[in-house]
Amino acid sequence: MTRAVRIPAGIRPALAVALVLTLVAGAFAAWAGRDWYAAAHDDSAAYAVQRDRALAAGEQAVQNLNTLDHRRVDQGLDLWESSTTGELHKQLVDGRAEFAGQVKAAKTVTTARVLSGAVTELDDRAGRARLLVALRITVTTPDSKSTDKDSRMLGELTRTDGRWKLSALGQAPVGGTAAG
After folding, report:
1. What is the DSSP letter of 180?
2. Which of 4, 27, 101, 104 is the least buried, fewest Cβ under 10 Å from its Cβ?
């Protein structure tokens, strides 16, 4: 014979409160889990990841293409070529020998440091991006004199084999035009 368990009257309200709190906690956990899942699988999160990857690769590539040491020209030009694709890559390969000769004759060391950068356009599906990079370029001459120049560059990136590479690079216009 089964005997019913009797709960003393003083414990019943506490048990009811515990049951309500458990249900509220479960509902909150379900709501938070649904929001977390939605955020983790949101297209804008994937887009932000690609934007950040493009920016990091673009900044590094612009820095690479503005850094060259006459004592290690071939290593520097190899880095230039590995940072580029498309027409820009072809131009670098075609002009490599002449440019290496000029740098060795000038005996300069050029280093660049990225100050800031931003992706201005991103077409993730097409694998194309544009960016603006501000950098400080330091040129050191054979007599150890150095000159700093701040520069803004516009670059185009193309995703090739899952990696972002520079496909175009140019000087950004400085200043505005007069209103007429």
Report:
1. -
2. 4
Nearest-angstrom CA–CA distance, 178 and 180: 6
How does 161-178 read in b/e, with b if 16+ C-beta sit within 10 Å? eeebbbbbbeeeeeeeee
Closest CA to 134 of 123, 124, 149: 149
Instruction: Please report the pLDDT score of residue 180 as a whole number.
Output: 43
- pTM equals 0.74
Q: What is the distance between the alpha carbons of residues 150 and 115, in angstroms, rounded to a whole number?
A: 9
CA 147/CA 19 separation, integer angstroms: 73
Cβ-based neighbours of 10, under 8 Å, separated by 6 or more: none
